[in-house]
Amino acid sequence: MFRDKFWLSLVLTIPVVLLSHDIQEWFGYSIPMLPGIEYAPAVLGTIVFFYGGWVFIRGAQRELADRQPGMMTLISLAIGVAFVTSWAGTLGYFEVEIWWELATLITIMLLGHWLEMRSIAQARGALAALAELLPDTAERVTDGGTQTVPLSALAVEDVVLVRPGARVPADGIVVDGDADVDESLLTGESKPVPKEPGAKVIAGSVAAGGSLRVRVAAIGDQTALSGIMRMVEAAQASASRAQALADRAAALLFYVAVVAGTITLLYWWLQGDQEGGLIRTATVLVIACPHALGLAIPLVIAISTSIGARNGLLVKNRIALERARELQVVIFDKTGTLTKGQPVVADIAAASGEDEDILRLAAAVEADSEHPLARAIVAAAQERGIDSSGATEFESLAGRGARAKVDGRMVSVGGPRLLAELGLEPLEQSEPWASEGRTVLHVVADGTIVGGLALEDEIRPESYDAVRDLHALGLRVAMITGDSQAVADSVAKRLGIDEVAAQVLPGDKAAAVERFQQGRRKVAMVGDGVNDAPALATADVGIAIGAGTDVAVESAGIVLVRSDPRDVVGAIELSRASYRKMIQNLVWATGYNLVAIPVAAGVLVPWGIDLPMAVGAIAMSVSTIIVAANAQLLRGLRLRREPMSLEPRLAPA
Known about the structure:
Elements: H1 2-19, H2 21-27, H3 40-52, H4 54-65, H5 71-90, H6 99-123, H7 125-131, E1 137-142, E2 145-150, E3 159-162, E4 171-176, E5 179-182, H8 184-187, E6 193-195, E7 200-201, E8 206-208, E9 212-218, H9 224-237, H10 241-270, H11 274-287, H12 291-310, E10 313-315, H13 318-324, E11 329-333, H14 334-338, E12 339-350, H15 355-366, H16 372-383, E13 392-397, E14 401-406, E15 409-414, H17 416-422, H18 431-435, E16 439-445, E17 448-459, H19 461-472, E18 476-480, H20 485-495, E19 499-501, H21 509-516, E20 523-527, H22 533-538, E21 541-545, E22 558-560, H23 566-601, H24 613-632
Parallel strand pairs: 11-18, 11-20, 18-19, 20-21, 21-22
Antiparallel strand pairs: 1-2, 1-3, 3-9, 4-7, 4-9, 5-6, 5-8, 10-22, 12-17, 13-14, 14-15, 15-16, 16-17
């Protein structure tokens, strides 16, 4: 709308400017006085006023109806004064000719609003990009093959075929096929994610290198993509403390402009310069328009939330993102946040012989077991290329371990209860493992301990970088866990965590967060958004990590799509950067008005400087463009990081 009104108003404004006596005198040309041509500026200027300027008048009506006068009211006052003054001059009441200034004023205002709307639309481009991720149709698998149907026809439990290069039409579970899936526009993860039967896929992601058959688990508004879109839209519309400040400043500026305009008119009128007083009054109202002030915060909000969305960082509440810049302590839940929540083999000890022999025997015994520790042992053997087959007579020992016959020997794998039952003493090498909180399993062959294994919850490689980067930002890092003090201290030592709260029950996590808040410290809680819901709500900033397809985590203000604790650093950096831009824009927008209003009122006239109305409009628009350009600089902020420091793990042979 603003674009169309701008171009037509510009076409009408050009002849108004060319016909102006002031312009002809300044540039030394003259236009033949044809019959009635003296009324052409008034006719064209009136058309520009009602066609281009009426949108501002309607906006002023809404502001006054809400009792919140602001930018539109000021613009309407300015063009209203200029319009009445112009007609008064045309009808001979004053010797004044400002139709060209009225027309250029409205045209420049329309240009400024068009640029503003376009900037905000570009900032919200991530939202539009998300909406375009879904295909229009899907291939539903039927008994006779496939059937192309619109997305609205899909239902939960339907099976759809996703061909190579096609987008997944709905959230679901892979039931057949293997493919690498590009989820970058949803999660920010640059590398394709391998998918096989049993894996979850997200609507809008792209299959590559293979086809998939997917059983639909969520459709329509229930998909992760729809949830992400709702969260981004809500964040861009949510209340902001900085926005409230800008709104109050804009309202105050309205009254300042009205008072300044009244004083200007009265002063110059009493000085005998009625024409100059009217022009300068309109210029004061023009130049005081809080256009830049009105754009300063919304544009930063729109850009910052879209940047976050493209990087897998979803802001549910603007206040949460603003508070993130003030954080002093970041508290992580251990299991599933700093660690993967899955055991891995961390160390091996052999009473005699090679470590590989111990791992081979243990993996052979555990090959048929579904216990998480058993799967970890088998996975470790597979990583090292060790054959774990050949076991017979497998038997699960409830609460103690498992045993089977391997290479003609009866081999048992288990913990302290198994050793107590067999009357054996633990390996000396395993004593440090227990003190570090690791799970210790011993391998017993024909009644003799031949070795031991240490297992632990694997620390995410990204956790080391997250803690290091948080320290670099000047924050302290804490950890809450239900594990023993030994386990907590071991993880904290390796990660460089400053404070630990161990053996904390899920129901006590909120109280633990309150203890960290003592001394008025600003605290963030990072957890999975489910078990940690009370703690997330208690913290100054609640951050749900590893949400994956579950984007409806109500207890957190910020949701991180990836299971990557480094994104907490990104959230804090985005908070600090967006706040800096807000403050810079507010300072510029308000400072500009403090300087420009007195100049527009004519304080420099005794020194020969008198600001024309059109120049005032241009200055106001330039101020708006500067604010918009400054906000756009946020796009250069880089939130993604690559792992730089990984703790050495059990090396393959």
